[in-house]
Amino acid sequence: MTENLATETRIATVIRDDNGIIITTMKACGRVDEDDVKELNKVTWEIAGGQPALKLLLAGGGWDMTRKATEIAESEDSGSRTRARAIVVSNPLKASLFNFLKSLSEKDYPQQFFDKRDHAYQWLMAFKTDGLQIPMF
User: Fold this and answer.
1) Which is nearest to 113 in space by CA: 134, 131, 90?
2) How far apart are CA 32 and CA 87, in angstroms?
3) What's the start-to-end Cα distance of the chain, in Å?
4) Would you state the pLDDT for residue 92?
5) Which of 8-17, 79-88, 100-109, 118-127 has the lowest mean pLDDT?
6) Which of 99, 93, 44, 53 has the alpha carbon at shortest distance from 73?
């Protein structure tokens, strides 16, 4: 159920689904460097049609980021590119820990961590409806 074919990068597969949600599935690619981040950001922006998008990141395992990649990811991350982001991690403990850590930092868009893809997707879909009520899981 996708509007576009999947776009492959070295580190991820990116699609835009029928609801307009950008779904990024990370690969077990090892080390992610700044060029990987720049390429992924460019692909995501193009798939989003140059508009802020609802984004679902399936983080999975088998990768980590260099310090420079993290800095670039943070510097290019803003509400001008993201309406809301749901991040799916491997277990409930990680989701809880990341949500706590998220509360210590500021984002100019909503972001939430989940351990279940369905919950993450439902949360993002709430941003598409009028009278927004964000489901809590």
Assistant:
1) 90
2) 17
3) 25
4) 56
5) 100-109
6) 44
User: pLDDT tens digits for 52-76?
Assistant: 999 999 998 788 889 999 888 888 8
Give yes or no for a contact between 24 and 56, defined as CB atoms under 8 angstroms apart.
yes
How far is the C-alpha of 124 from the C-alpha of 62, rounded, in Å?
25
What does the H/E/C string look like for the chain? Answer: CECCCCEECCCEEEEEECCCCEEEEECCCEEECHHHHHHHHHHHHHHCCCCCEEEEEECCCCEEECHHHHHHHHHCCCCCCEEEEEEECCCHHHHHHHHHHHCCCCCCCCEEEECCHHHHHHHHHHHHCCCCCCCCC
Which residues on adjacent β-strands are paired with residue 16? Answer: 22
User: Residue 48 CB: number of other CB atoms within 10 A?
Assistant: 20
- Residues 94-125 pLDDT 10s: 545 554 555 546 678 898 889 899 999 999 99
What is the amino acid identity at position 101?
L
Alpha-carbon 105 to chain mean position: 17
